[in-house]
Design a protein that fits this description.
Number of domains: 1
Order of helices and strands: HHHH
Helix content: 55-70%
Structural class: mainly alpha
Strand content: under 5%
Number of helices: 4
Low-confidence stretches: none
Distance between the termini: 28 Å
Amino acid sequence: MYHNKEMRSMAAYAYGVQTAPFQESTNVYAPYYRQCNLTALMRANLPSEGFIEKLMYEPRSDTFAALDYYFTHYNNGRPFILASHSQGSSMLRIILAG
């Protein structure tokens, strides 16, 4: 999945479109993370118990790892803004509740 060229190409395109408004005024750090497609999970016939946990486990762990990496390697104590879209908004709510 991480090496799927089509997925990475689409992610790079989305990055360009969604970060364009911020590019001239700030440094943008927008890491890749494993997203969960609700339709694909529903087709997997997972039992309803634990469904949400399964839906969010990998994206959540990737997001926290990316945030830790950002603070360790890039932030240098500067102020920052968290912005999100789509499934990223769910991840942002988890981070803020953290």
